[in-house]
Amino acid sequence: MPTKLILIRHGVTAWNLKKKYCGRQDVPLSPEGRKQARKLCRRLRKTGVSHVYASDRKRAIQTANIVFKNIGIKTIPALREIHFGVFEGKTHDEILRKHGPLYQRWLKNPLGTPIPGGEDMKRFKKRLWGTIKAIARRHADGTIAVVCHGGVISMLVTHLKKSKNFWKYIPGSASISTLSYSNNSFEIISFDDREHL
Questions:
Q1: Is 81 a catalytic residue?
Q2: What are 159-170's pLDDT values in tens digits?
Q3: What architecture (CATH level 2) is domain 3-85+119-193?
């Protein structure tokens, strides 16, 4: 039996609603995000999740605690969102005004354009894959939930699809994307499932 990994993007935050880059910032869920998490809880009630891992940011921990009330949550800093450097806490328009040419290059080629003060995409990818593989190997034949961030899920999915379109695979808030793991390889079962919302 393969290991099933349920990747969950945290519920929406006030910063998400304002279209601000959250990155490493420790932003909590908004009231709407909590509502989304409760709907997700009802959806996942009978999925047989045995272990839950979460990024150590509030928005991920709060989502995990609402969705998986009776399961201990293990927080892992390596599941954090990418560090957006000088873009963190700013909206699209604010970044355009202050870092226009750089921001345009980054939007066109996020994998090849470093952000000042931010995390290199290759390092981001390396830390995520090391973490996800370790989790999958630790729980053979189990159903595991990983509550994390949009950029985290996109990096995993784009790698598996051998795609460079990072933006295409940013899932919605409180969405479910499912991976299967067996024989040291991953397969995408579903992506950005938001039926419960």
A1: yes
A2: 999 998 999 999
A3: 3-Layer(aba) Sandwich (3.40)
